[in-house]
Structure formats: structure tokens, C-alpha cells
Design brief:
Blueprint lengths: L1 E6 L1 H9 L4 E4 L10 E6 L5 E15 H8 L7 H8 L4 E17 L1 H5 L7 E4 L17
Parallel strand pairs: 1-3
Antiparallel strand pairs: 1-6, 2-5, 3-4, 4-5
Length: 139
């Protein structure tokens, strides 16, 4: 099963280039059968640009999470702690393999979704294998 995550374009690029091997989240999906993450690159891109397979997910106290992930975090330590704010623990999704789409997809047309605040479960439909998005109609 897959979920859609909204990820800032600068971090999405690092994921698909291989320099960011962890995606951090304040909260995580409860379904243990999630194996892939579909990446919606948020504003200004506003397109679904690829997906990655989940290696594993860690839930740790913030200091320990940073210690274990910092080398391949793709973010600064300041950004890490700012992102998590007053949380005591955080989640790091370890990226196993990536697949960048040749052409971006439209979140509304191709997935029948709106950009998720946290995440959205992707329910397989006929639209999930829909054709590529026409850029002018996406957004």
C-alpha cells in the first residue's frame, strides 16, 4: 500500500538525487502495510514527481533521532529541531529505493487527491494508472 506525502521541492530533489536518505515526520501513518511513499512536491512545483520504497521507520527521542540520521538527513541540525518544535520524539522514514517519474503527475487528476497536510492513503483506482498530467490543468 502507498501513501502520498507533501514534501518541499528542495528536499524532494535531494531524495531523488540520493543525498537525503531520511524523510522526517512529526506524526506517521498507523497502517503497518505501507511500503511506498508517493512524493508530492509542494509549492511552487505542485506536482507528483516520484515515489520511494520504505526501508524502515524509526520513532526516537529527538536527540537520538538526529544522532542516527544526521549524516544523511539532507537538512541542518537547526532546521531539524525547528521542524519538530516542542515534540519529544520524531519519526524518520529510511528511504530504500527511489523512482523519479519521467513526467510529473497531477495530484487531482491522476490520484483524485488534494495536497495532504500530513499524508494521504492512496486507494488504487482506475485513475491511479491515468495518463500524464497536462501542465496547464494542474495546480
Amino acid at each position: 500500500m502507498k501513501v502520498m506525502l507533501s514534501i518541499k521541492p528542495e528536499f524532494a530533489d535531494k531524495i531523488f538525487k540520493g543525498s537525503k536518505k531520511f524523510e522526517f515526520r512529526r506524526s506517521i501513518f498507523k497502517n503497518p502495510n505501507i511500503t511506498k511513499i508517493v512524493v508530492y512536491a509542494s509549492s511552487p512545483v505542485q506536482k507528483v514527481i516520484g515515489e520511494f520504497e520504505i526501508d524502515h521507520i524509526m520513532k526516537l527521542q529527538l536527540n537520538e533521532l538526529w544522532q542516527k540520521t544526521s549524516r544523511h538527513s539532507g537538512i541542518s541540525e537547526d532546521y531539524f529541531y525547528q521542524y519538530f518544535g516542542d515534540k519529544e520524539h520524531g519519526f524518520a522514514i529510511k528511504i530504500k529505493s527511489v523512482k523519479k517519474y519521467k513526467r510529473p503527475l497531477c495530484i487531482r487528476r491522476d490520484f483524485d487527491l488534494t495536497p495532504p497536510q500530513s499524508f494521504a492513503y492512496i486507494v488504487p483506482t482506475k485513475r491511479a494508472s491515468a495518463q500524464q498530467c497536462v501542465y496547464a490543468s494542474c495546480g
